[in-house]
Amino acid sequence: MTDQPASDVRTIVRVRTLRGFADGFVSVLLAQYLTTLGFSPLQVGAIVTGTLLGSAAVTLTFGLTAHRFALRTLLLSAAVIMVGTGIGFASFTQFWPLLLVAVVGTLNPTAGDVSAFLPTEQALMATEIGAADRPRTFARYNVAGTLAGAAGAGLSGLPNRLAEATDWSLLSAQRLGFVVYAVIGAVVFVLLRTLRVRDHGPMPPRSQRRVLRTSRRTVLELAALFSLDAAGGGFVVTSLLVLWLHLRFGLSPSATAAVFLAAGLLAGLSQFLAPRIAARIGLIRTMSFTHIPANVLLVSAAFAPTGGVAIALLLARAVFSQMDVPARQAFVMAVVPPDERAAASSVTNVPRSLASAATPLLAGAMLDRSTFGWPLVIAGVMKGTYDVALLLLYRHVPETEGASRTRSRASR
Fold this sequence. Notes:
Elements: H1 3-36, H2 41-64, H3 71-91, H4 95-104, H5 117-128, H6 134-154, H7 158-165, H8 170-192, H9 205-209, H10 216-234, H11 238-249, H12 253-270, H13 274-281, H14 283-302, H15 307-321, H16 324-334, H17 341-358, H18 360-369, H19 374-394, H20 403-411
Helix pairs in contact: 1-5, 1-6, 1-8, 1-11, 2-4, 2-17, 2-18, 3-4, 3-5, 3-8, 5-17, 6-12, 6-16, 7-8, 10-17, 10-19, 11-18, 12-15, 13-14, 14-15, 14-16, 14-19
């Protein structure tokens, strides 16, 4: 790796760290802020859905146009949208304007990364690093974001403490949190201006007509499987878990922040184990064998008799819940040709966003009627089904460059 690509990858990791902190901060703050505004659980679910729908549309646009624009330009555009999102949430207090900002903005209500930045960053890193280093690099990239997200979640109680320590209203203090989000977006913009990613030029006419020429079948099949997983995950995005813990057990904002700080730390640190596990049992088995215990623990948390037991089960789940992420990213980048990586990344991530956007509204409606953890049960069952299907379909697929073509020939 030359100095320039290494520098660009380090910049992307720094950007991911800042975005992770901002996302972790507002993912916990969002439900509290909307509740302070007087919104019902159903309205909270609608706004969360709006953020995911908007992310899906922008992510698809970025991924399918990556061959026409420099990656640096796309990332700078995403940073501008991030700044506008923070300003919008800090400025508006009515439901419909906030829903509009949620749809067109970059706000991330999830513990993971669902945003326009994701496919562009993944394509850039896969281009700049070799296949052998991808699982380790993706793990570092993800862990940086996860740990920063945990720190952001841990500090999300600061607006409440500020309101208690001063004469500020709780609403004003929480609104300041979204100003912080906008400021972080501005810092991200400045960092991205230092990128020196080459513009690879226009693709041949035939490639423009068929973006996924050789890996279409595999990419679409993976997109369908990932969508099932994401639809289950949409029932238990961080903002809705915060709401459930509050409604079910009366958990305070400070306690909630501490819980998700710990969960983020556990999820982040565990990802460092993924490359070692994958080296022994393969990427697909790593994804399935670590995800299944996480889903069992999630379902168990729904039946917890006390808040303490629920928290313990959710923290145990966090240890396993994110190990599949670097393995999944490395697998997708390995089984598609280099010129199809940006499109493959967006096509496998966008359905995830769309699927996860469809379910928070349902989860909000459930919590509006009952405080029992039905969303956790449904999420665990759906995600467990994905794990089994992934293992059955892909356990024999070579996890090397061109595996999608190998599988296509073998299936005929």
